[in-house]
């Protein structure tokens, strides 16, 4: 006998707040972007299109959502933000600031705009920072601007402006209670399905419903932070229908800390994970801050970075060396596997069409473990890696007893460097060992050459990074980012 | 904010400078760019279909699926252009709007599809079926030279003295080669045009262009109508940098042709990828050089060939490669020189103007030569520089213009002192001796940049000034605003002429029906030309007002003063508004057209002699870097700049130009890499793959100062100097500092010969090469 699930309440419109207005949209295709809506329907022209791929920040807006800590706002790229992901959100554009906010006054006062095209996006990114800290350090400003390109000013006047902020009112703070009440009133716990021109978007009501939806629609495109899917859509015009949106599912964004490690819901954003990562995995802190730009870190998720299985995803190599495991779920049940086993081959993963990644369990490293994660890219920040290398060694009596080493950008998938590990095991951890073991990379990998780096560079740099790892473990390498002028 | 990491703006004057005239609107998001303008009812949207071969015959172009796609209104191909299917700015007819018969580069426009909305047009453009017959494609300089070195336009040679004899007789001699990468403009606002059809043959085109008059001409040619039928307007661009000097033509022409064809407004805005693939960039160069010198580091002679990848058409490659040669001496007097350019034809996008216009490549090659001499002699490159600076009596350029204001030595002396260069260099050397893997480098490089269009006729400008009855002023001039603060500067000098504050002067959108026959806003000349023209207009009106005031007060005209919003003549005092009201009543013309042409300049290209430049702008920079010699990753730790803008018209605007140009130059020399694959496809065509500097890339300590003592010896507007391009080249201090850090791995015995961009890859491989491992 076939069992019929209880009927799920279904709503057929996306509801969100845009500045002061409430928006209800029934006709929405999964590929419809927020930027398109802002510019062509709402005629809010302050938000600009510079690249349509989430890299230049000219379209930066703030997006508020009620989370575990109440209403919280983060900067986002409207160009790759899909409308269907905005259900229950408050979208704030530059127009909402009114022109006299302290960030805006400071930029005017310090000549922080020239052509002005990037400026509204920069204003919004900096306003997002200002909401967290009224006296940001230079490093905080630079981090907040990792996702914003300016081609005119050389950024110097923008940094000066942020060093001279005046105090002022926060328009979002003043209206927070009202906004929160309005957002709560929009929610009804229903599954949401919307469509336009035959393309459908589905927002499951919870994770059980997600499992059900994927049984109904196996092979549907899953959309979490849309930092990748948004690019397929905005740049390549790829069809993604039917698309299942995940960003609103609170359980998927939960972080659970245990004595042995951390369980990250697959929907945990890089930003949401940052504090736990910095505390439990301090060696990963600087690496983490180089993933994407701030807007991308706010949207992009751990689960998404793993599920799309890019050979150059930044999180898999360090998670692999930590021995992270994935939990996959479908209506049929749950299963778990070591993260490294998930990646089968380029473009192929061990995930059935009705399964979704539910969580990633990341064990803590051992007390004496030697750890490092390196990323090399043409530009320090907001760049896709030419290669990444993560290492974890466990020594006993000066000998390497355990070695886990993983690379990104060196093969079609994120991959362990087994030959290097084998050359290290049982050997004294010395410069000679590091130099000798580096030869193993040539057995493990045959890197390609492309616009990010040549094969020759990748092969040479990865060996040198192992050498650097030894130097650092011996306390003698020095760090580029800590040097000041002579 | 962290005071350990200062970003200094060395401000000697306490007077607040006028803000950018759009600053308040920029931050509020209310400054409209073309894509923000309200679209006329029924506006259609065009999108370009691009070729997918670098060099091929088009055997069949099947656009039936494009035409049948939802929302499509029609298609334009080369056959649909009523006039000339060409946008060549030099009128060589080598730059088709749509390729016909043969494709000359990967990404060349083949057709445009016009639809009711942009999404439909963009989706339809992907549906073209093209059958190509592939032809051999020449993609880079080496391939072009190997295939016989076909040129897109005639090269130039500059000769001074007998260079080969001087080379042969010099005590030391060396030869080398430098490969210099290109650069995408990456203006944040991409190319865009909105054309609105009018009556008869008229069309009104909003174009994001640095050269409205040329767009006007191109549209007129394509539509086969007189120029008087075409109005081109631009209020502001979201950045230009040279990328909208000629490259806006095609977009404006397509929008205009479509607008006339369908009788509706038509907008054309390519996405970022298509913009980067289909529009020209800074030329990459290969410089082959030979230098003869003595043991004191004095250069006796230089011979150099500057070969440039120009792409499939001439565009501005002639003047760009000319300007490379004009700057192949930078700040140094070569007793003998022979400098030649090779503007090479390739099956790539046609390269174009970009801030510096060939000058940066010229200077880069020159500074490499200085570096080579320094390493050969084991000396600080600064000593070699000093030994060769232009100075009185040692002041004739390879193009036979005398350098009349040899300011560079003073500038460099002051910067050496204020940056603590010598002590820091010693500390850098000491650090490198101690540090095994992290290395530092420091370098001081100068720039001398010639100001004027080398095409003499471009050095003219017009302005139109109205004073209305209420005493408000409206000014229009031929220059375009792309963020550089041109309107701010021009408005303030005009306001000043009348003793008014700048907000009394409204500068309106640049429009070809207000000021005709304008030149491109380029060559750093915007203020020199347009402010001078505006001042001419102001002087005419002022003279009429002074005449009236003098007559009423019974004094001489030259006794009338305009200050603080007040006009005084003898015992009489008027507010400016009162005097204007009286002037109107007295039927005095309160409108004037101003004009300016740069004096003194002339250039005989065939002879390689003349005075192409009205004057020179100077600057110098000291940069210190740190390099991880295990990975090639690098950081710029500190940069000190001392730059010459003559008497500054607006310190904030000038410093903004210097900082912005420097950082843009850093990007060119370090992280911005144009990468074509074997099929001739540009693979770095979006910010995800093409990396311009971020806030976190700029010098950790960045100090910019102006040479306040400098006064332009020529009577420019208030003795100011142009500033748009010259500071771009100051970024070469970063390249040379990186080179020093690399050289340290081999005890500075060998010049690293770093090519650009100096990515982590090039830096690491250079280190490995010097270590003798690679």
Structure description:
Chain A is of the alpha+beta class. Chain A is built from 19 helices and 21 strands. Chain A has helices at residues 34-41, 102-109, 119-132, 138-144, 156-162, 171-174, 176-186, 207-216, 229-236, 270-280, 285-288, 294-299, 302-307, 316-321, 339-342, 418-424, 431-437, 440-444, 455-473; strands at residues 10-11, 14-18, 21-25, 60-67, 70-77, 90-92, 191-196, 199-203, 221-223, 243-245, 255-257, 261-265, 325-330, 333-338, 343-345, 348-349, 356-363, 370-376, 387-396, 399-408, 415-416. In chain A, the strands form 5 sheets. In chain A, strands 1-7-8-10-9 form a 5-stranded mixed sheet, covered by helices on one side. In chain A, strand 19 (387-396) and strand 20 form a beta hairpin. In chain A, helix 2 crosses helix 5, helix 16 (418-424) runs antiparallel to helix 17 (431-437) and helix 17 (431-437) packs antiparallel against helix 19. Chain A is globular and about 65 Å long. Chain B has 774 residues and is of the alpha+beta class. Helix content of chain B is 29%, strand content 24%. Chain B has 19 helices and 30 strands. In chain B, strands 4-6-2-13-10-11-12-21 form an 8-stranded mixed sheet, sandwiched between helices. Chain B starts with 6 loop residues before the first strand and ends with a helix.
